[in-house]
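Regression test case RT-17, inverse folding.

Input:
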C-alpha cells in the first residue's frame, strides 16, 4: 500500500527452502527498485511474531530497517531512506512482469 512518500509492506511470504540463498535480497532489491521508480522514500512494515516466522523478523534487521515501536509480539519497522540502499543480491536476476 502506498501512502504519500512511503509504502507499507503488508505481508512477506517465502518458502523456507529459499532462505539464505540470497533470494530474499533479490526480492528486496527489486522492491526497492520499484519503489524508487514511484518516488517512494520510505518503507514501513508491521511484523507480528509467530512460531514459524522468526527468520523474516531478523531479515528486516539485516536489510537495514529500524524498529519504530515494539508492542507484545509485534514490531513496527521503518526503512528511512531507500535512496541510500545498496543492493545486497549478488547472483539472482529478477525480471519484472
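Golden output:
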Amino acid at each position: 500500500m502506498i501512502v504519500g512518500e512511503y509504502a507499507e509492506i503488508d505481508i512477506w511470504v517465502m518458502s523456507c527452502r529459499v532462505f539464505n540463498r540470497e533470494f530474499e535480497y533479490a526480492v528486496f532489491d527489486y522492491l526497492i527498485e520499484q519503489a524508487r521508480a514511484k518516488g517512494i522514500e520510505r518503507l514501513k512494515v508491521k511484523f507480528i511474531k509467530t512460531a514459524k516466522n522468526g527468520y523474516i523478523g531478523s531479515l528486516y534487521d539485516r536489510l537495514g530497517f529500524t524498529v519504530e515501536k515494539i508492542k507484545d509480539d509485534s514490531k513496527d519497522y521503518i526503512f528511512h531512506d531507500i535512496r541510500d540502499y545498496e543492493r545486497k543480491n549478488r547472483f539472482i536476476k529478477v525480471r519484472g512482469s
